[in-house]
Amino acid sequence: MELLLALLIAALVVATVSRQRNPLKVCPTCKGAGVLPSGIWSKRYRPCPRCGRKGEISTR
Hints:
Distance between the termini: 43 Å
Number of domains: 1
Number of strands: 4
Structural class: alpha+beta
Oligomer: single chain
Order of helices and strands: HEEEE
Largest sheet: 2 strands, antiparallel
Number of helices: 1
């Protein structure tokens, strides 16, 4: 039981570290949608200028 718990904790730590070090992260502006809501017309969307409509940005 203790070994299983230790393996589960180790897997969570590895997943967290790999997610933080991943070079492609979700765009903080569009939250991965690739589009932003329009400020003028409701229910209209425009491409996110930061991620180029991909929903993710490079860390470089």
